[in-house]
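Lecture notes, part 5. Sequence design as translation. It can be helpful to think of inverse folding as translation between two languages: the language of shapes and the language of residues. The source text, in structure tokens, appears below.
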């Protein structure tokens, strides 16, 4: 469970993004690396998903824009082709077909206008969600930095204590080793090598 402090925190304005040329965070490799060793909060995941959905929506709108532009051209070509039949020959079927293409072009024009409006709004919509994601990221990452700094201090203390303890162990080891050497040397001189070998087999 993440601390409640992640639910609020520092706020950035759109000027921050423009001033620092901050691109979409979800396509920034460095942003993604921030969460290699730490999970994203549910709030960050929601903002990330919103941004992904906006990118998908934008891609769909651009695709539809191209498709209806091609459809409009098809209908306009049809009207041009039918014009002589309608106005010179009075072809009723051709007139009906022309009217259908005219209605379709009107529908396409309305849809094209709406798509253009949606695409014009898209940069601001993406910027808004990107700002939300930036704010949430800063709150999470700086909390992590604070926790890490606290842990670093704890580890520095432990390292110092361990270093001190290690010196004690080394001193004790050297004292014991020297005592053993001195004792072994004494009995070797006193009893001789043959007796020492017997003692070694008996005790060690």
């Amino acid at each position: 469970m993440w601390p409640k402090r992640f639910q609020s925190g520092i706020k950035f304005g759109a000027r921050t993004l423009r001033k620092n040329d901050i691109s979409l965070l979800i396509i920034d490799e460095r942003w993604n690396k921030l969460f290699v060793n730490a999970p994203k909060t549910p709030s960050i995941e929601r903002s990330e998903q919103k941004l992904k959905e906006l990118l998908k929506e934008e891609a769909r709108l651009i695709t539809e824009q191209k498709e209806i532009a091609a459809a409009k051209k098809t209908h306009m070509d049809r009207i041009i082709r039918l014009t002589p039949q309608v106005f010179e020959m009075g072809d009723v079927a051709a007139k009906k077909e022309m009217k259908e293409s005219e209605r379709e072009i009107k529908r396409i024009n309305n849809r094209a206008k709406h798509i253009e409006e949606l695409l014009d709004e898209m940069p601001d919509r993406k910027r808004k969600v990107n700002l939300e994601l930036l704010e949430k990221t800063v709150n999470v990452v700086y909390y992590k930095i604070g926790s890490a700094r606290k842990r670093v201090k704890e580890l520095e203390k432990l390292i110092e204590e361990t270093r001190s303890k290690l010196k004690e162990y080394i001193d004790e080891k050297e004292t014991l080793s020297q005592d053993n050497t001195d004792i072994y040397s004494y009995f070797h001189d006193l009893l001789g090598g043959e007796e020492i070998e017997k003692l070694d087999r008996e005790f060690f």
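The translated text above is only one of many valid answers, since several sequences can fold into similar shapes. DSSP finds five helices and no strands in the chain.
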